[in-house]
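FAQ: What does the model actually see?

It sees only this:
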Amino acid sequence: RCARHRQVVLAVGDLVSRDVSARCRVWAEPAQIEAAAWELGVVEEQLRTAESLFGPYDWERCDLLVMPPSFPYGGMENPRLTFLTPSLLAGDRSLVSVLAHELAHSWTGNLVTNANAEHFWLNEGFTVFAERRIVEALEGDELGALHAALGYERLKQAFAQLEDHPDLTHLRTHLAGVDPDEAFSAVPYEKGYLFLKALEAEAGKERFDALLATWLRDHRFGAATTDDFLALVERSLPGLLGRVDAKAWVDGPGLPASYREPRS
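And it is asked to produce this:
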């Protein structure tokens, strides 16, 4: 993913494929390939939408692999070959926002990677933000707002589960001696998203989009920290961090008093 951390992912099995565009191919077991190719055939449209929002797709190919039912995640954003759960094959494309999330990782998570797990929100918070921008562009603001409201409910559940560990509700976490299973939650995803939305609301979408483009360009194929992002915001939009109480977002528990609750 960056100069210091490279990954190779292999998939071996009884697999066949269908091209759904010049740069996108769907792979699955023979019994599932037709359903998978139809369900995930929106990938090129999502990819073009993402490029219009975040800049060129830097990975050349964007292939998708439908995994066996035992695959324990919704998706895994391996560069050039994303793994997806077969539970997405609903027959009506109602779950393709998961594909939008994994696709968004091509910019936020694969193109720009968090330096370590203590800055995990830079990966997932940015990706939830990007995913919902893709959904809004393709399906309308109302559906994007619904996804944000559902995400907020997941965040409240995470806060309740972490009531005895408020330090794990910070965006920037300190994980020395912490069990990774205890630290993982919706917090970096949904609190990270809300922080970025607070910055966007205060700065205005046009100026925030310009900042995001600078972030993706300056850290392209590299690893970054929370301080890197905060420094960019301060350089680009002086005073913005203070106006949204960024310290409370990044290094405080729960949500700042000034947060805006998403509503569907």
